[in-house]
Amino acid sequence: MAAPPGILEVRCAGCGETLEVEHGLTEFACPDCGMAQSLPPE
């Protein structure tokens, strides 16, 4: 199933869970394992 428009699917570097992240968000934490992560700016 594809993510809704405006959402990116990324894999958590800690637990491997697939996360849905809003476009433009560069820093976030996994809700499952709590690992802080970052994406490059678009």
Q: In DSSP terms, counting alpha (H) and pi (I) runs of 4 or more, how many helices? A: 0
Shape descriptor: globular
> Could you say how many structural domains there are in total?
1
Class of secondary structure makeup = mainly beta
Radius of gyration: 10 Å
Describe this structure in words.
The strands form 2 sheets. A two-stranded antiparallel ribbon has the order 1-2. A two-stranded antiparallel sheet has the order 3-4. It has one domain (7-38). It contains no helices and 4 strands. With 42 residues, the chain is mainly beta.
What are the salient characteristics of this protein?
42 residues; two-stranded antiparallel sheet; two-stranded antiparallel ribbon; globular; FORGETTER1 first zinc ribbon domain-containing protein; mainly beta; Znr_FGT1_1; 4 strands
What's the SSE blueprint?
Blueprint: E1 7-11, E2 18-22, E3 27-29, E4 36-38
Antiparallel strand pairs: 1-2, 3-4
Task: Give a brief rundown of this model.
By secondary structure, the protein is mostly beta strands. 0% of the residues lie in helices and 38% in strands. The termini are far apart.
